[in-house]
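Person: At home tonight, work slowly through the protein below, taking as long as you need, and write a paragraph about the fold.
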Amino acid sequence: ISLAACWMQRKPSHSQTLLSQVQCKAKALHHELLMAKCARLWGHTMRRRARFQKALQSFQEAMVIYEAQGDDLPIVSCLEELGRVAYAASQFEESRRYFTRALAQSRISHVEVQHSLHLELAQVYAALGDIEKAKAHVKKALWESQSFERTEQLVQVYQSLGDLCLIQCRFEQAHHHYQCAIGILQECTGIII
């Protein structure tokens, strides 16, 4: 059974065993990038098992290797993954720091993940109780989605705006944003909801 099959079948204990074997071989071969990929996979496995501290450690190990290599896309991805793990562990301030670093790095590196980072920052700020900053990040995600004409992202943004309005008990505005999301889906699919 392969590592990919373990992931697809959601068998984390089997994937842990196989991943440990691959990690040992990567270390023996001094293959840095393979070690970083293993650390990231280990982080995903630990996150699925709700072992957030181990997941954070694994992603941080991968970050050290990617930073030494100077490879921008994996650095941004690791920062984003670290933010997600910290969020799942209810470490919202830590999550905010990781997502903010990822956003700054993506701008410097011209990596196109800013839309998702703005939405994730919006979630973090909402969890921290700062609804105004959350809305600001959702609006930035909206601007980026409209400027690149990405339909799926626009739907996500309008849903997020609706969710934020619900938190503030602004039901008419929430309804408006949800209607925008539905309208976009209807326009793209031709299916009337």
